């Protein structure tokens, strides 16, 4: 966007049953001094929505279907923005390596495919997450 901004998101997770979980996100991004390639600027206020359906195949392996929609106005001229929208559907997988100290390492992969305004775009997504509890609890003897 060519400038610093603020993004706020509201996440919600719902466990449907012992095999399926959904994750929802709704948010907005404000870039008060967005710029284009010509260094023209305007204020940009956008919105985003996300939905994931996670199949808990077992306690270490998940299959996912994720959807992401964005509407982020781009600078067209000084003080003027034009809408730019994107919509992606991404099937993916992730698996976990659990360690006795509480550390969990989670690699994953997905294949985002553009639909609607993003039709014809596709890619590959790989991620690696290191997760650990914020505090370690000790038993008293």
Report on the structure:
The chain is mostly beta strands and 141 residues long. It has one domain (6-131). 0% of the residues lie in helices and 63% in strands. The chain has no helices and 11 strands. Strands 1, 2, 3, 4, 7, 8, 9, 10 and 11 form a 9-stranded antiparallel beta sheet that branches. Strands 5-6 form a two-stranded antiparallel ribbon. Strand 5 and strand 6 form a beta hairpin.
Number of domains: 1
Shape field: elongated
Strands, total number: 11
- Distance N to C terminus: 56 Å
Mean pLDDT: 93
**Helix-strand sequence:** EEEEEEEEEEE
Number of helices: 0
Describe the sheet with the most strands. 9 strands, antiparallel
Rg calc: 19 Å
What structural category do the secondary elements indicate?
mainly beta
Which band does the percent of strand residues land in? over 45%
Low-pLDDT stretches = none
Helix content: under 10%
In terms of topology, how is this protein built?
Blueprint: E1 6-15, E2 20-35, E3 41-56, E4 61-71, E5 74-77, E6 80-82, E7 85-95, E8 97-98, E9 104-110, E10 113-114, E11 125-131
Antiparallel strand pairs: 1-2, 2-3, 3-4, 4-7, 5-6, 7-9, 7-10, 8-9, 9-11
Write a brief caption for the model:
With 141 residues, the chain is mostly beta strands. The chain is built from no helices and 11 strands.
Keywords:
single chain, 141 residues, mainly beta, nine-stranded antiparallel beta sheet, two-stranded antiparallel sheet, 11 strands
